[in-house]
Amino acid sequence: MNYLTEILAFYKWLETHPLSPLLQAYWHLLMYYNNKAAVQAEDGSWHWPVNFKVPNTILMPILGIKDRRVLLRQRGYLIDHGRVTYQKDRGQRAGTYRLMPFDRGLSMAAIRAETGDSVTQIWTQAVSPSAAELSPFININNKHASRLYSNQEDAPFMPQFNLLPQITEEEKAAIRAQYPGNDVAAFNAIWAAREEKQKEVEGLRTLFTPST
């Protein structure tokens, strides 16, 4: 799953499925905690888990909700709109959320976590090979982004923006033609093409940079 493409698709979806500001904030908050629950595979790569937990006691203060029944009602709206599923746990323990991705090219896969023998379901790209490298990364600007949640001191430097070189409109049109009716997959493929172009530019810089 790709954070940026999901957000862009969410706002596109809002044009025909208007939600209250509170519901929009709720969805964004769930995206944040889904991202924060990132799972590291044995090879060191980070992945979006399909299922994740967030206690009501965390969600309610952030959303400015004081009555638990209000949160349950808002959650029901997101479920009815097909944006999330929720499974209760026993007693007072946090239930399990599952965000429903806008990217229709995603499928579920199982990986073994780096620590321990547990197997976790994660989202992975199943349609566009050219964009497959984008899918596992928690933040498309830096594949190590989720480390920011666990250890601020050891976190790598991350620029505020990732300014990739543009491709031509003709190249974009050719890519979109490969994914009719699937804006998210087309965006992923265009982004992958821009990343490839960046690699080419960096390769040329290395080639023509005099050694010291």
UniProtKB/TrEMBL annotation:
A GO term for molecular function: endonuclease activity
Keywords: Endonuclease, Hydrolase, Nuclease
Domain of life: Bacteria
Protein's name according to its UniProt entry: Restriction endonuclease subunit S
Source species of the chain: Eubacterium limosum
Taxonomic lineage from the root: Bacteria, Bacillati, Bacillota, Clostridia, Eubacteriales
